[in-house]
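2024-03-11 09:14:02 INFO queue: dequeued item Nicotinamide/nicotinic acid mononucleotide adenylyltransferase 2, len=307
2024-03-11 09:14:02 INFO validating residues
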Amino acid sequence: MTETTKTHVILLACGSFNPITKGHIQMFERARDYLHKTGRFIVIGGIVSPVHDSYGKQGLVSSRHRLIMCQLAVQNSDWIRVDPWECYQDTWQTTCSVLEHHRDLMKRVTGCILSNVNTPSMTPVIGQPQNETPQPIYQNNNVPTKPTAAKILGKVGESLSRICCVRPPVERFTFVDENANLGTVMRYEEIELRILLLCGSDLLESFCIPGLWNEADMEVIVGDFGIVVVPRDAADTDRIMNHSSILRKYKNNIMVVKDDINHPMSVVSSTKSRLALQHGDGHVVDYLSQPVIDYILKSQLYINASG
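2024-03-11 09:14:37 INFO prediction written
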């Protein structure tokens, strides 16, 4: 399978991130490694989307603090970014709404036609509509070969920081084939791009709790987008999926990360990291990166909090 035919993926993680832990970042890394090893995917970006303050969870600190902590946690990553859109809304947003927002944003910013899991697009996903005058921004007459998928996605990848962190203007990226006869025809790379929800097996298990999730939203999340699940504490994901008719229906859209790494819940758990902070436990360094710890101590977060 060539790079052109592989599915290009952006991983999106929604959550409290109260605070964001080392384990949350490891989930991104493990998911990317696994998807690459399957030979079917290329992960071009990751997005951390902290929940709105009105989510109402006990002990949830202000999104102002959570956004800063998330930014500190990913500051050394060249592919994971923090997006404040969810926090900036007037009220709490569903996971489905956040996925749809980023899908629509990617359409506007990249000019891509994002395909659903079940219905891969047969339309070139990067290119200029035929009724518009081409305004190429990627063109070099000195380059004799046509742009590859890697070159094109490199340009998209470079734009992720702007996509994730600012409200970009509505514009299109146009990638022109230098070998094409621009007077009569333009050729484009066809690249399939999807946004997948990244989560732990605990979120997957929450889908089985009656009334917790809107069923229509679950249909969109699992049926249209798809999920990448990182198991925790040797969770039996097959058993979890068998407890939900929707998860069974879209089982092929749920990718479970399978590797040899032990991933205990304590490494990911924000709750355990908060307890360690409150008790002055030196093992907090196992849960949180040093810049996040420094910010928490400077801002006096969680020290007297409960939950």
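2024-03-11 09:14:37 INFO annotate: The mean pLDDT is 78.
2024-03-11 09:14:38 INFO item closed
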